[in-house]
Amino acid sequence: MNQPLLEIKDLKTYFYVKAGTVKAVDGVTLNLDPGVKMGLVGESGSGKTTMALAVMRMIKPPGTIQGKISLNGVDLVTLSNEEMRKARLSQISMIPQGAMNSLNPVARIRNQILDGLEDHGVKLSKSEANDRLAQLLQIVELPTKVADMYPHELSGGMKQRVTVAIAISMGPKLIIADEPTSALDVVIQRQVMETITRLVRELNLSMILIGHDMGLMAQSVERLAVMYAGKLAETGGVKEMFADPLHPYTQKMISSLPVLGRRGVFEGIQGIPPSVINPPPGCLFAARCPKVIAGTCQEISPALREVRPGRWVSCHLYN
Amino acid sequence: MTLSYFVRRVFFLFLVVWTAATINFVLPHLAGRDPIKEQMLIQIASQGRTQADAEAMIRTYTRLFGLDRPLWEQYLTYIGNVMRLDFGYSINNYPRTVMDIIISRGRLTLPFVVVSIFISFTFGILLGAFLGWNRTPQWVSNLVVPPMLVLSSVPQFLVALVLIYFVAFRMRLLPMNGAYPRTMVEDWGSLTFWMGYAKHAILPILSMVLVDASGWALGMRAMMVTVEGEDYATFAEAKGLTTWRVFFRYLLRNALLPPLTGLAIRLGFIITGASLVESFFAYNGLGSTLGGAIGNFDYFLLYGIVTIMVMCIALATFVMDMIYPLLDPRISYKAQRG
After folding, report:
1. CB B231 to CB A89 under 8 A?
2. Which residue ranges form the domains of chain A, and what is each CATH number?
3. In this structure, what are the phi and psi dihedrals at residue B310, rounded to the nearest 5 degrees?
4. What digits encode the pLDDT tens for the residues A6-30?
5. What CA–CA distance (Å, rounded) separates A157 from A184?
6. Chain B residues within an 8 Å CB radius of A166
7. What is the CATH number of domain B107-285?
8. Of B234, B240, B253, Cβ closest to residue A96
9. A141-187 per-position pLDDT tens digit
10. In a designed cystine with B286, which of A78, A248, B109, B273 is the match (CB 3.0 to 4.6 A)?
């Protein structure tokens, strides 16, 4: 058994605001092996993006990060700011959510790519820089002339490809793709997603793919993690999770997906997720859960435990 | 094409100046007053001229200033003169020419106003960017922003009064008024005169800078907060860029665009923007001259100053139009919008 690339242990991201404590991410424990793609799904506000930002240590005050995030055995939480800055892009990089707006509107693509290299100590002569740019753009299937263009001259898909080129430019081990295709139409979505998966495979990267699109997840990832109200509900291999979901939330979610050949009204999950500002004790899904155990679920918060090898669930049903 | 963009802008520049000059010509005529007659009546009242003398003088002056000719002829002469920056003689200060007055007064106004606008802008922008930056500790903002809010909403002359009272009158650190020491003759070739001018300019500049810089800083702070919320700000940080590169190249660079437009407009008001400050510091500058010209109904001086003012605004806008595409690539020389 090799050592996991990313080891997240009891990660808590709390925002201390006037209204109380916002527990955006509350006690997430997660392992990611090298070369594995993991999907992270959950409703809006369930803490997916916050967790991604926490892993990159980009949470701004009044937010705080507690717990352990170790990458290749190095605990990122204890790094100095400067060490963490250098780790971004060279160890972990991000493919951002808003493809349309993630590039600096007043700088040429060339500079936006080279800025990252330069600030990680890569010194290139003019011709070396050109070669590197051409190579990076070619990897993401863009013509070389894009280097001298401005973001507004590119389409959404092209912009997203540029961000992918930037993300891999320093050869990171882990890529966090935060809904990389949600701003694009379905055709472009597929093309960009294919490029990303191909690169992850070729460069032997690990990836955390954040999104709501279960179909996309089924196609692109090997493991799946389901978040609910800042906590991890369930993780496991993507096939097992679809075939045999354990947590009632996952069960409801998967049964709400449309199935080819079956007509009818899909059920969905009744109710709305609870507020994560000063959350109540007990399981946060209890109020919406069809299998709620009276007296237990509302009182005691279920711990995340490994019920089968590689299969973690936080639910009282499996105690 | 860049050339056609340039030609179009130059055309608009002339169109604006011509329109303004025309309005400038028509308006005083609509007022229905006769500046020469009024001037003579004052002289009759104060110096006791006879009726016949006065009427003869009115006729002579009217002919001299060309006010007896048909309106269209006056207009054509006027436009021709404007193009050559010749605004004729001042009615009140005859035989001094309007241009001569504008230059001699403008020399006192221009240096201190230009300096204060640039200091205000540079200082205000940097301060605002710093205050709006999410890495600046909160207590700095809490400390600096309230006084800036007060300063930015107070008129410049009020700040001027406070400065005159404390710095000049009580502490006697700097001269109270005048554009240069009373013991000196206006001589722009001598270094000592410049030094004297500079020393007298400190308080007026300070009173403008305190107010203007606060305004720029507050605006810039708001822009910074907006830019920091943009996705490219987050992505810049995720790229692991150095703090300073993110600050200058990604945040400040983008937040700077709207204030730069503001600066162009502000530069247009160089001439008259400081008239109240000028009068509190007893500068005999252009601002106070304009006020005087309105009071005395000095047609030609009024024409001159207002036209120069319009030219300044049009020129500043023109320069901004020329350099803006360089600052913001999204605005191209080709675009036909607007």
Report:
1. no
2. 6-318 (3.40.50.300)
3. -60, -45
4. 889 889 999 998 888 888 888 888 8
5. 7
6. 235, 239
7. 1.10.3720.10
8. B234
9. 999 999 999 999 998 889 999 999 999 999 899 999 998 888 788 88
10. B109
